[in-house]
Amino acid sequence: MGTFQFTRKQWLQLSLLLLLVIIAGVSGYRGLISLAMEDGGKPDVAKQESVIHRLHNAALDIEKPALFNVIFFLSKDCPLCNNYKPMLDSLRGEYASDPRFLFVGLRIDADAATDSSYFMPLEYSAGKDVRYIADIFKATTTPEVFVVDSSNKVWYSGAIDNWSYDTGKKRQYATEHYLKDALKALRNGQKPGIAETKAVGCYIE
Q1: Domain residues of the chain, as ranges?
Q2: Please, are residues 148 and 142 in contact by the beta-carbon 8 Å criterion?
Q3: Of the candidates 149, 139, 152, 147, which has an alpha carbon nearest to the alpha carbon of residue 51?
Q4: Which of 64, 66, 180, 189 has the most CB atoms around its CB within 10 Å?
Q5: SS3 68
Q6: Per-residue pLDDT tens for 94-125?
Q7: pTM for this structure?
Protein backbone atom coordinates (compact mmCIF):
# COMPACT_ATOMS: atom_id res chain seq x y z
CA MET A 1 0.00 0.00 0.00
CA GLY A 2 1.41 3.34 -0.98
CA THR A 3 2.02 6.12 1.53
CA PHE A 4 -0.05 9.27 1.17
CA GLN A 5 2.04 12.41 1.32
CA PHE A 6 0.86 16.03 1.64
CA THR A 7 2.16 18.53 -0.80
CA ARG A 8 3.53 21.82 0.49
CA LYS A 9 0.35 23.55 -0.61
CA GLN A 10 -1.80 20.99 1.24
CA TRP A 11 0.27 21.44 4.41
CA LEU A 12 -0.23 25.17 4.23
CA GLN A 13 -3.96 24.73 3.71
CA LEU A 14 -4.18 22.28 6.63
CA SER A 15 -2.18 24.61 8.87
CA LEU A 16 -4.44 27.52 7.97
CA LEU A 17 -7.54 25.41 8.66
CA LEU A 18 -6.21 24.36 12.07
CA LEU A 19 -5.38 27.97 12.89
CA LEU A 20 -8.92 29.06 12.00
CA VAL A 21 -10.38 26.29 14.16
CA ILE A 22 -8.21 27.35 17.11
CA ILE A 23 -9.19 31.02 16.68
CA ALA A 24 -12.87 30.11 16.48
CA GLY A 25 -12.55 27.94 19.56
CA VAL A 26 -10.88 30.67 21.61
CA SER A 27 -13.46 33.25 20.51
CA GLY A 28 -16.29 30.92 21.40
CA TYR A 29 -14.73 30.21 24.79
CA ARG A 30 -14.36 33.88 25.50
CA GLY A 31 -17.95 34.43 24.46
CA LEU A 32 -19.15 31.76 26.85
CA ILE A 33 -17.03 33.21 29.65
CA SER A 34 -18.38 36.67 28.91
CA LEU A 35 -21.94 35.40 28.96
CA ALA A 36 -21.38 33.59 32.22
CA MET A 37 -19.88 36.69 33.78
CA GLU A 38 -22.83 38.79 32.65
CA ASP A 39 -25.25 36.30 34.14
CA GLY A 40 -23.61 35.95 37.50
CA GLY A 41 -19.90 36.60 37.69
CA LYS A 42 -19.45 40.14 36.48
CA PRO A 43 -20.26 42.82 39.07
CA ASP A 44 -23.43 44.64 38.13
CA VAL A 45 -22.67 48.27 38.92
CA ALA A 46 -26.33 49.29 38.89
CA LYS A 47 -27.33 46.50 41.26
CA GLN A 48 -24.37 47.20 43.52
CA GLU A 49 -25.35 50.81 44.06
CA SER A 50 -25.48 51.08 47.81
CA VAL A 51 -28.52 52.22 49.71
CA ILE A 52 -26.85 55.38 50.92
CA HIS A 53 -25.39 56.15 47.49
CA ARG A 54 -28.76 55.80 45.81
CA LEU A 55 -30.41 57.76 48.59
CA HIS A 56 -28.12 60.75 48.44
CA ASN A 57 -27.30 60.92 44.78
CA ALA A 58 -30.52 59.78 43.15
CA ALA A 59 -33.16 61.16 45.46
CA LEU A 60 -31.92 63.57 48.11
CA ASP A 61 -29.03 65.08 46.20
CA ILE A 62 -26.82 65.37 49.29
CA GLU A 63 -23.33 65.93 48.00
CA LYS A 64 -21.47 64.59 51.02
CA PRO A 65 -23.29 62.18 53.32
CA ALA A 66 -22.26 62.29 56.96
CA LEU A 67 -20.62 59.46 58.83
CA PHE A 68 -24.00 58.68 60.39
CA ASN A 69 -27.19 59.65 58.54
CA VAL A 70 -30.28 59.68 60.76
CA ILE A 71 -33.16 59.27 58.33
CA PHE A 72 -36.74 59.75 59.51
CA PHE A 73 -39.87 58.83 57.59
CA LEU A 74 -42.49 61.30 58.80
CA SER A 75 -45.94 62.60 58.06
CA LYS A 76 -47.59 65.69 59.45
CA ASP A 77 -50.87 63.84 58.99
CA CYS A 78 -49.73 61.19 61.50
CA PRO A 79 -50.68 62.12 65.12
CA LEU A 80 -47.79 60.10 66.50
CA CYS A 81 -45.29 62.05 64.40
CA ASN A 82 -46.74 65.30 65.70
CA ASN A 83 -46.40 64.06 69.27
CA TYR A 84 -42.74 63.24 68.67
CA LYS A 85 -41.89 66.56 67.01
CA PRO A 86 -40.66 68.40 70.16
CA MET A 87 -38.43 65.48 71.10
CA LEU A 88 -37.03 65.17 67.56
CA ASP A 89 -36.32 68.91 67.45
CA SER A 90 -34.45 68.63 70.74
CA LEU A 91 -32.49 65.59 69.63
CA ARG A 92 -31.58 67.19 66.33
CA GLY A 93 -30.39 70.29 68.18
CA GLU A 94 -28.25 68.16 70.49
CA TYR A 95 -26.32 66.76 67.53
CA ALA A 96 -26.34 69.91 65.39
CA SER A 97 -22.74 70.77 66.25
CA ASP A 98 -21.43 67.27 65.53
CA PRO A 99 -20.55 66.98 61.82
CA ARG A 100 -20.57 63.19 62.06
CA PHE A 101 -24.37 63.20 62.24
CA LEU A 102 -26.86 64.38 59.65
CA PHE A 103 -30.61 64.39 60.38
CA VAL A 104 -32.88 63.98 57.37
CA GLY A 105 -36.66 64.23 57.49
CA LEU A 106 -38.54 62.52 54.69
CA ARG A 107 -42.17 63.58 54.67
CA ILE A 108 -44.90 61.83 52.77
CA ASP A 109 -47.77 64.18 53.60
CA ALA A 110 -49.31 66.24 50.84
CA ASP A 111 -48.22 69.73 51.98
CA ALA A 112 -44.60 68.85 52.72
CA ALA A 113 -43.44 70.79 49.67
CA THR A 114 -44.89 74.08 50.93
CA ASP A 115 -44.44 73.68 54.69
CA SER A 116 -40.82 74.01 55.81
CA SER A 117 -41.48 74.35 59.52
CA TYR A 118 -42.07 70.74 60.43
CA PHE A 119 -38.61 69.21 60.26
CA MET A 120 -35.27 70.62 59.21
CA PRO A 121 -32.66 70.74 57.76
CA LEU A 122 -33.96 68.60 54.92
CA GLU A 123 -37.47 67.81 53.84
CA TYR A 124 -38.93 66.30 50.71
CA SER A 125 -42.46 66.37 49.46
CA ALA A 126 -44.80 63.49 48.96
CA GLY A 127 -44.34 61.62 45.72
CA LYS A 128 -42.44 58.88 44.03
CA ASP A 129 -39.02 59.92 45.32
CA VAL A 130 -39.89 59.61 49.00
CA ARG A 131 -41.85 56.41 48.46
CA TYR A 132 -39.04 55.08 46.30
CA ILE A 133 -36.63 55.67 49.18
CA ALA A 134 -39.10 54.06 51.58
CA ASP A 135 -39.08 51.00 49.34
CA ILE A 136 -35.27 50.93 49.41
CA PHE A 137 -35.26 51.00 53.19
CA LYS A 138 -38.35 48.80 53.46
CA ALA A 139 -39.91 51.49 55.63
CA THR A 140 -43.60 50.86 56.27
CA THR A 141 -44.51 53.29 59.03
CA THR A 142 -44.32 56.90 60.17
CA PRO A 143 -42.48 57.66 62.32
CA GLU A 144 -39.72 55.21 61.44
CA VAL A 145 -35.99 55.89 61.69
CA PHE A 146 -32.85 54.45 60.13
CA VAL A 147 -29.29 55.24 61.18
CA VAL A 148 -27.07 54.45 58.21
CA ASP A 149 -23.36 55.15 57.96
CA SER A 150 -21.47 56.36 54.91
CA SER A 151 -20.46 52.80 54.00
CA ASN A 152 -24.11 51.64 53.90
CA LYS A 153 -24.23 49.78 57.20
CA VAL A 154 -27.52 50.18 59.07
CA TRP A 155 -26.68 50.66 62.73
CA TYR A 156 -30.22 51.08 63.97
CA SER A 157 -33.69 50.90 62.48
CA GLY A 158 -37.22 50.98 63.82
CA ALA A 159 -39.01 52.94 66.52
CA ILE A 160 -37.83 56.12 68.20
CA ASP A 161 -38.64 54.67 71.63
CA ASN A 162 -41.21 52.36 73.22
CA TRP A 163 -43.77 55.01 74.15
CA SER A 164 -46.18 53.58 71.56
CA TYR A 165 -45.92 49.80 71.79
CA ASP A 166 -48.83 48.82 69.53
CA THR A 167 -51.33 50.48 67.22
CA GLY A 168 -53.34 52.92 69.34
CA LYS A 169 -51.60 51.82 72.55
CA LYS A 170 -49.21 54.07 74.47
CA ARG A 171 -47.42 54.06 77.78
CA GLN A 172 -47.56 57.08 80.03
CA TYR A 173 -43.83 57.50 79.52
CA ALA A 174 -41.26 55.81 77.33
CA THR A 175 -39.06 53.40 79.25
CA GLU A 176 -36.72 52.47 76.39
CA HIS A 177 -35.11 55.22 74.31
CA TYR A 178 -33.88 53.21 71.35
CA LEU A 179 -32.79 56.02 69.05
CA LYS A 180 -31.18 58.17 71.74
CA ASP A 181 -29.25 55.19 73.07
CA ALA A 182 -28.12 54.16 69.57
CA LEU A 183 -26.87 57.66 68.74
CA LYS A 184 -25.12 58.00 72.09
CA ALA A 185 -23.34 54.68 71.54
CA LEU A 186 -22.22 55.67 68.04
CA ARG A 187 -21.03 59.06 69.25
CA ASN A 188 -18.90 57.25 71.83
CA GLY A 189 -17.49 54.86 69.25
CA GLN A 190 -19.58 51.92 70.43
CA LYS A 191 -22.05 49.57 68.80
CA PRO A 192 -25.71 50.19 69.74
CA GLY A 193 -27.00 47.63 72.21
CA ILE A 194 -30.26 47.32 70.26
CA ALA A 195 -29.94 47.41 66.48
CA GLU A 196 -33.54 46.89 65.37
CA THR A 197 -37.04 47.36 66.72
CA LYS A 198 -40.53 47.40 65.25
CA ALA A 199 -41.84 50.85 64.35
CA VAL A 200 -45.39 51.61 65.43
CA GLY A 201 -47.47 54.39 63.91
CA CYS A 202 -49.21 55.27 60.67
CA TYR A 203 -48.74 52.99 57.69
CA ILE A 204 -47.08 54.32 54.56
CA GLU A 205 -49.56 53.56 51.80
Answers
A1: 8-38, 51-203
A2: no
A3: 152
A4: 66
A5: strand
A6: 998 998 998 888 888 777 666 667 776 555 54
A7: 0.68
